[in-house]
Specification:
Elements (H helix, E strand, L loop, with lengths): L4 E13 L2 E14 L3 E11 L2 E12 L12 H5 L9 E4 L22 E5 L9 E4 L2 E7 L10 E9 L8 H6 L3 E11 L37 H12 L17 E4 L13 H10 L3 E4 L12
Length: 299
């Protein structure tokens, strides 16, 4: 940011006879923009020993370049995410509750499962240098808490290059996306009970004629054991036994090492978190499973 692009094209051909060039044409073009959008072109024609060249620059639009708005206060810039109702959702469902139309502009959730607040504009609990393409002028870390004992972190995938200033080599050696904290997850045990209102519910009962199972009919004696088993499962539902999990997958743990080789982190880190800590300490990030190299007697 600001967004810009440069597109180049180069083409040409050469006609030779017995290694001697009779005619050649070469065209070079470049389109850059936006603000303004500029086309530059150069062409040259050569016939035997005579060469003619010409170039032209055309401004296709005079729009001003994109203006980058600085972010002097990062919490102030993102505070609207705290009151955005679209950032709230709940995991869990109470099918006995149906919400009517909401006219207050808020959101209603059944008090089951877990309440999740999550935003996608910046990773939390991670030192960052940029937000939305804007350089912050240093290292910043955002922390958020609801002040409840039952709160847990909610993670999502963030693009590393969007929030860190990386050299070309660092871009190639880092994961493109990594899970970072995006919000909070609060269990129902931490919620306080609000005001309630009793509602009288009227139920209309309709009694249907008695239904008979197929096995109760006189023809049950002709049913084979296999068919009887199928009918029982159909009436009572099949019982599934998934068994124990055969494969477990977890995020690889990394360590941040200082310049003297000592591990700096105190808890498990992913590759990006370890890279950020190592970069600030002028060290190196390595997988937690990497063995230490004994350099006794080398230095």
């Amino acid at each position: 940011k600001p967004f810009y692009f440069v597109a180049r094209i180069e083409a040409g051909f050469d006609v030779e006879v017995f290694g001697v060039s009779l005619c050649s044409v070469r065209v070079v073009g470049q389109l850059s923009g936006p603000g303004p959008l500029v086309l530059q072109a150069q062409a040259s024609v050569r016939i035997l020993f005579v060469k003619v060249s010409a170039s032209v620059t055309v401004e296709l639009s005079s729009n001003p370049p994109e203006r980058v708005v600085p972010i002097p206060n990062l919490p102030e810039h993102l505070k609207g995410e705290l009151t955005n109702p679209d950032n709230l959702r709940v995991e869990g469902d109470d099918r006995s509750v149906i919400f009517g139309p909401q006219t207050t502009g808020g959101k209603l959730f059944a008090p089951v499962g877990e309440l999740i607040w999550e935003q996608k504009r910046a990773p939390l609990h991670l030192d960052i240098q940029k937000v939305e393409g804007v350089d912050l002028g240093g290292w910043h870390k955002l922390e958020v808490t609801a002040g409840l004992a039952d709160e847990k972190r909610e993670d999502d995938w963030f693009g590393v290059g969007t929030y860190l200033k990386l050299a070309d080599g660092e871009v190639l050696n880092n994961a493109k996306f990594a899970p970072q904290q995006s919000g909070l997850r609060i269990g129902t045990g931490a919620m306080s009970k609000g005001n309630h209102k009793d509602k009288a519910v009227e139920i209309e009962l309709v009694k249907l004629p008695k239904r008979f199972r197929f096995l109760d009919l006189p023809g049950a004696q002709y049913v084979s054991a296999g068919l009887a088993s199928v009918l029982r499962e159909r009436a009572g539902g099949a019982q599934l036994d998934p068994g124990p999990a055969q494969v477990a997958v977890r995020q690889e743990a990394w360590n941040a090492h200082a310049g003297n080789g000592q591990v700096q982190n105190t808890d498990a880190l992913n590759s990006v978190q370890a890279f950020v800590q190592a970069k600030q300490a002028s060290g190196v990030a390595l997988p937690a499973t990497a063995k230490a190299l004994d350099l006794t007697g080398v230095f």
